[in-house]
């Protein structure tokens, strides 16, 4: 059972007793779950899980530099998908600046839950034991895709940001959809955020096209299917090449009012109506 992780979000980590206790519980958990005796990956904001360290070294780094705030799924330290969380995860309380207690109920980031739902069969890597040796299998294609997404999930939007690149991007795209922004206006927003509002090196894509590629990896893209303007049929499968409706005879394409042409200035046909199909 993974211990509570709410301590990771505390700001004054060097002085907070709750944070220091959380560090000790994390170290106990990591050494027990990984089976390592001497060194584990250091998840401080300086090492970023790329450097090995002894228990004392990792403890010192976490106290001095702080832990990666978005590293709430400890897959480098033995946590597996579907592992139950400590009950204290849901009962953890912070003390606000005015001394009042504020209850925190959210157990995990929504994006991490999304990744877990998308890849339910992955447990963080497959291992087999052979005597005293522990052999790790090479991750398959699906596992590699999951780990790449998880790596994006961990990356902060900018240095010391509480928000991750992936969760920020999903929220921005949600606002775009709800507000019916054009692709061009969304690209303009990304450019302004990166150049004028966020810190240098902000981890956002440069355009809507790049953002869409990232989201496509999450399985959140849709299939666009042309539809009869009177909702009689879909131009799908064996009907995908038709130019008019089999039921009412209406044209599949938009027709220019004055010229009567079905192609726009770029020579492309535009469907009069389309369905956006979101595969479950």
Automatic annotation (TrEMBL):
Name of one Pfam family that matches: Transpos_assoc
Residue intervals of the Transposase-associated domain: 5-79
InterPro entries: Transpos_assoc (IPR029480)
Domain of life: Eukaryota
This protein's name: Transposase-associated domain-containing protein
């Amino acid at each position: 059972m993974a211990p509570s992780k709410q301590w990771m979000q505390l700001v004054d980590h060097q002085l907070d007793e709750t944070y220091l206790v959380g560090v000790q519980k994390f170290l106990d958990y990591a050494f027990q779950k990984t089976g390592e005796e001497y060194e584990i990956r250091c998840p401080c904001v300086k090492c970023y899980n790329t450097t090995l360290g002894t228990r004392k070294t990792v403890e010192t780094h976490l106290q001095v530099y702080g832990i990666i705030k978005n590293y709430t799924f400890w897959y480098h330290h033995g946590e597996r998908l579907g592992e139950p969380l400590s009950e204290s995860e849901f009962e953890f309380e912070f003390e606000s600046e005015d001394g009042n207690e504020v209850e925190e109920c959210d157990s995990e980031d929504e994006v991490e839950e999304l990744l877990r739902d998308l890849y339910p069969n992955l447990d963080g890597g497959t291992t087999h034991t052979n005597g005293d040796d522990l052999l790790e299998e090479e991750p398959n294609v699906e596992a590699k895709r999951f780990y790449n997404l998880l790596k994006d999930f961990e990356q902060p939007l900018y240095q010391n940001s509480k928000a991750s690149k992936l969760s920020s991007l999903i929220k921005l795209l949600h606002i775009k959809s709800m507000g019916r922004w054009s692709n061009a206006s969304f690209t303009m927003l990304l450019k302004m955020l990166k150049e004028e509002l966020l810190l240098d090196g902000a981890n956002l894509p440069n355009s809507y096209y790049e953002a869409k590629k990232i989201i496509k990896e999450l399985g959140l893209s849709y299939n666009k299917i042309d539809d009869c303007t009177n909702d009689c049929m879909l131009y799908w499968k064996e009907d995908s090449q038709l130019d008019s409706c089999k039921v009412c005879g209406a044209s599949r394409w938009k027709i220019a009012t004055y010229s009567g042409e079905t192609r726009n200035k770029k020579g492309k046909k535009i469907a009069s109506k389309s369905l956006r199909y979101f595969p479950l």
